[in-house]
Amino acid sequence: MIRQRKTAGLCSLLLAAMLCGFLYAAAQGSSAAQMKEVKVYFLKNPYDDSDPANPSGLKPVKRRVSAKSPLRAALLALTAGPTSAEKQQGYDSPTWGIKLLSVRIVGGTAYTYFTMPEGAMFSGDNSPFIFEDAVKMTASQFPNVRKVVVCLDGILDFGSESDEPPRKCPKS
Is beta strand 35-44 parallel, antiparallel or unpaired with respect to 91-92? Predict the structure, then answer.
């Protein structure tokens, strides 16, 4: 009788372990299926702005992101910057420390809201436009995005040097 209980207990334990292994494997497979390959756009040295279709000289780098919210994940990957291996290949971040606050898509327009943390700054006169191009190129790859609005710290025309008051971003 004791031997039967031990055998039944071992069988139950083995069955539970097999079930856990199966569930773990299923979860791993489903998480891979919930990923999407996207492109994020970085600067690449040597810098080449000779292409009229890409005056910022940005080059795509592939990332695997969550398929649940791929636009947000792609923009987060953009602001995270290149990996150390990509940096060794000459890639550099076009975001200069800028962080994503939020993104939403309304009627085919992606409204992207960013902030420049204290201590972060653009590296030159063209940097705001390169940042804006990187966001627009990254966001435009998605079929449900036809237009991209880029806002930085509540300002729509953050790269402008005009004497006009800055245009405010639409509320998120």
Answer: antiparallel
Based on the fold, state whether residues 41 and 96 are members of the same structural domain. yes
The domain total for the chain is 2
Joined tokens for residue 19: 């079930």
Do 2 and 43 fall within a single domain? no
Rg of the chain on CA atoms, in Å: 23
* Residue 68 in tokens: 């649940």
- Mean pLDDT, 10 residues at a time, over the chain (172 residues)? 50 36 39 87 84 85 96 98 96 96 96 95 91 97 97 92 89 68
Torsion of CA 128, 133, 136, 142, to 10 degrees: -150
Residues of the domain holding 23:
1-33
Looking at the structure, tell me whether residues 113 and 143 fall in a common domain: yes
In this structure, the answer to whether residues 74 and 138 fall within a common structural domain is yes
What is the pTM (predicted TM-score) of this model?
A: 0.78
- Output the pLDDT for position 3: 53
CB atoms within 10 A of CB 81: 17
